[in-house]
Structures
1.
Amino acid sequence: MLLLWTVNRGFHHELESLDRLRHVPFVRDLKYTSVQEGRDPGYDGKLEITTPHGRFQLLLKAKRSYLSHSTVSQLLGWLNHLRTDRTQGVILLARHIPRQAAQALIEAKVNFMDDAGNIHLELGDAYNWTAIGLPAPEPVSERRPASPAQLQLLFQFVTYPESVNWPVRRLESAAGISKSKAAQARRQMVAEGLLTRAGRRYHLGPISLMADRLIFGYAQVLRPTLTLGTFRPAEKTTESFVSRLRMNVLPGVQYSLTGSPAADLLQHFYRAPEVTLFLKPSSPAIAQQLRLLPDREGPITILSAFGDLVFWEEREHQMLAPPWLIYAELLNSKDPRAHEAAQEFRSKFLAW
């Protein structure tokens, strides 16, 4: 059985949420074991549930973002990638699971429980307990949302872990933020547990905490601030546009592919017709020179390149964004196949 764990506060609150499972009549005992530090097997711990007629083993996946429609799609894509043993079940712990999301999870045979008391727990053929439709609890004090500068710096740190100890003047050009914002963001990360500090040295915190911050922050905060717009190319296909871009890049213009086309060049697992690229400089005039026409439904999205970080590595004569940005862009897609591809991509390129 697999446990997906979505919470929005610290470890002690997570244990309190997990303890609510003890109120289910057929749950006799719970035993949780965390994943060994330094490993990223795709889940965050193991849970054993004892019932009157036996024990059920669960894997535990920790997420700390709110459960939106896109989050449900991402979780199901991740599950399709991970669920190789068809005898395994799934359970999700969340802050709140709306009725529509609950129905989708039940249909997908995903168990769940949230802070409000919504629950669906089915263990084998003997045990089934369901209650949905309870409203979200009143919010408690939340952490300050991440700023674009903090997210840019965090993408820098997970891409180049040694850069956590770089001087701020070097982080300025790498992450595309000012020296003062780099210093402030690093202090904030220490306060929130994303970084730890021993003497003058910094170290990255738990991968699950950083991954959730990156994925949620990219979709909700960073990407909207970077988006110049969506466009359609002069060519009939995006592949033809990308080929032209590779052969005839404008003088003084830099670009890097992210999302589906970048993942395809690295892994050849999934390719969508949409293309997202970082561009420097990023302006409507440059887009016009690239023979791109503004189109709300266009298949090409241009993002402003925010630092040296986005120009990661060249593959097949195409510059690519770093893997964590590629992964976040895949999860931002509305296509469930992109979410499944994201999990395949993470298992190969984002091992911690």
Note: The chain has a mean pLDDT of 85.
2.
Amino acid sequence: MKIYLDGKFVDEADAKVSVFDHGLLYGDGVFEGIRMYGGNIFRLEEHLERLEYSAKAILLSMPWTRAELSEATCETCRINGLKDAYIRLVVTRGVGDLGLAPWLCAKPTIFIIAGKISLYPKEHYENGLSIVTVPTRRVGPGAIPSTVKSLNYLNNILGKIEAKQAGALEAIMLNDQGYVAECTADNIFMVHKGALITPSASHGALKGITRGTIFDIAAELGIPIRESEMTRYDLWCADECFLTGTGAEVIAVVKLDGREIGSGRPGPITHRVMEAFRRRVLVEGTRI
């Protein structure tokens, strides 16, 4: 595997960053997880725009144009001979000293990895997930804005650990007010009386690229959709539920906290959304 690192392609074994890199020392950086299907990088422009916005929000100056980032991403897939891949594009603050001061980092570090990912076993896409609610709360937008896709993922990792301890592959995280924010690595949607409902960014949800695609799919299929406050009770009593994410794609949830959702099987609207998503990923995006 070849890794793009600071303008060069290097072997996997030689892809190294300094121990003084602030991305390592302090989680000071931003990233994007991107998917490629059949040689088509899905919504690359949207991912690069979000990367730019995340960097701007944390005052991380990126010296590359969007065209340069796009070409580097595409070339990473080409040089590795990939047609289907998961791409991780990371920009850190760069090398500095042992203090927090980001202005002492002379230039940012960039690396791009293109490989494979399988977030959930195949049978769960057919039968749905059983998930739980974990004690760890989502960091509030007044602390770290949920719209910034930063390297600070300890909050999500703690939630993922608690999910595993409960025997689940994924878990819901609530915000400080007790409303559903998102899952540890996915956005969440429920179906209630024919409408799709999802938490807003103001409640702690990341503005996911796949999440945004669901809004487009809902418009295409004529399904009402809205952002709203969401409680665990709402999900327990929902007709259907599904998760979305670059890694997860679209996957049904059939049980939450020991309670069956709807029929206990992936529902008809979930199936329609999944099928529409699979069609879109092959035609939307950037060809390498």
Note: The chain is about 30% helix and 25% strand.
3.
Amino acid sequence: MKSFVKSLLLALFALALVAAPGFSGDTIKIGAGGVVSGDLAPYGISAVRGYELAVEDINAKGGILGKKVELLIGDDVCKPEIAVNMAMKLVSDGAQMIVGHVCSGATLAANKVYKDAKLLVVSPASTNDGLTFSGENPNFFRTISYDGAQAVLMTQIAIEQLKVKKVALIHDKGDYGRGQMELVKASFEKKGGVEVVLFEGVTTGAVDYTAIVQKIKRSKADVTLWGGYHSDASKIVQLLVKKRVKTTFFGGDGIIGDNFTTLAGKYSEGVYATGPDDTSSNPLYQALLKKHQKKYSEDPGTFCMQGYACIQALAKAAEKAGSLDYDKMRAALLSQKVDTPLGKIGFDKRGDVVGVGFSAYKVIDGKYKQIN
């Protein structure tokens, strides 16, 4: 009887191992956190399409570690409090690794859940410096550069090309927007010779931006730099032009892409922005462009290529590690190089991408054109 009980316990223990995280089921589950509804949905949807195309390509080649990949898609609406609940659901649904989120504030909030669950996260779009520089998120990686690098480029373009003397720094009060403008302010102060005449936040989604536009007009700022997303920026730009405020509008990657130019229309002409490097000449980019056009009947959105690269990085790390073990996969992420539509990328010890950066763009004839 004792022998039978012992054998039964051993069998149950073996069964438990098979059902443990990282070993369970017939598929490997990747949780995709981001914004797929609301004003900022175009950013999240572009990333999700990148994930979907990457999963299709990986599954066509046999999956990861011999198992097909399954995407679990969540919607945080770009709100930290919703992101936490969404992250908890992805974990409870069996996600074994995470791609996303898009908005930095949502990522900062959700990653507390992922870190506790020992899940690796690779984001295509969250640029807040604190995500990597704080040292508090060892599970976090990203396929886009960070806001500090973007801030240096923004100030460089403003000083060297726009010959700015006075600047207004406006933001949406969020972790991304406010953090970005704080870094820009510090960069201007370090370089010297430029006066920050206005530093102020606005309420995102406001009905009327007249008050901030009047403040910008009174400040006589040569350039108005914006930290936030396209939905607010498009309304502010329109009002600046209609009120004949003589200032050049300059945003970060939160306004890059067709989302902004479509909403702002003719008022977007002459607007500057920084965003991910243009890698459209890369053969892998061209191949993915064709797949995207065939599947979705349109060109890829802002973060599609970065999203594709997120899945690539995690898949290669799992194969290199030979398992989904957190420590082994993390070590693999830090040591590997991956050929992606962004070029050959890796990650530094903080989790920041190596091999890609930011470029400056200007809206000319309704389209963003690279200017540096």
Note: Confidence is low (pLDDT under 50) at residues 1-24.
4.
Amino acid sequence: MNELAIVDRLRRLSLPSANLTLGIGDDCAIYRPRAGEELLFTTDQMIEGVHFTRAQSAASIGERALARSLSDIAAMGGDPRFCLVALAASDTRWIEDFYRGLLRLAKRTNVTLAGGDLARDEKFHCDVMVCGSAPRGKALRRDGARAGDSIFVSGRLGKLWDRRIQPRLALGRSLRGLATSCIDLSDGLSLDLHRLCTASGVAAEIDRVPVTRGSTEERALHGGEDYELLFTLPEGKKAPRGVTLIGRVVRGVAGQVHFQGRPLQPRGYDHFRKDS
């Protein structure tokens, strides 16, 4: 199978979209936003030996590649609209299986594959860009937390790095107009909470961390790859069902976090730090 055949097959498999007036097959996709809608854009890379291994199935890697970007859309309270995928691989069968997994998740989340790029390389790597949308002025951000807010997470932390990601899209949408800030936990609670607090100019105190079965508190604090939502609610606001209260936002040095009374260093995953 050559590149033209692969592209033609992807065109036939991709979901239609009323707002996507031109998709796979031209130099650019054309998307027509709705009135009163703001567009959200995010991108995430998947690199062999960094984010996955050849022991994993191509379909699971494809699904995970899209899920990582969808988690960012969830953190902004958005609805995903379409994705663009740049992929380099050496095996056309692997490429087919990769897209099979990606398109399976795309169908479940109503995402249209609108285009991208294909190249040949012995080392597999890809980049998935997702466009989402939110009502104008309603997207969730990192910089709105205020002293007195309560801090919540959407699930247990410390998950294995290769487990299936469940983007919290419905929860993110439910937090629009309710949460004062939100971030997805991709690099570890300690680092991502530090980022949220730095953006908001506040500090935080956390009393507990919900640990997934078989994991450790250390991994739940610093491990990353959880893809849960970390968010803040004003005092007295009722939280959605199924989330866990872990602490509160306080006045203090911007970005400083205390866990059970002790300073918590932001030791989550950093691509450029040698001990990550």
Note: The CA atoms of residues 178 and 238 lie 9 Å apart.
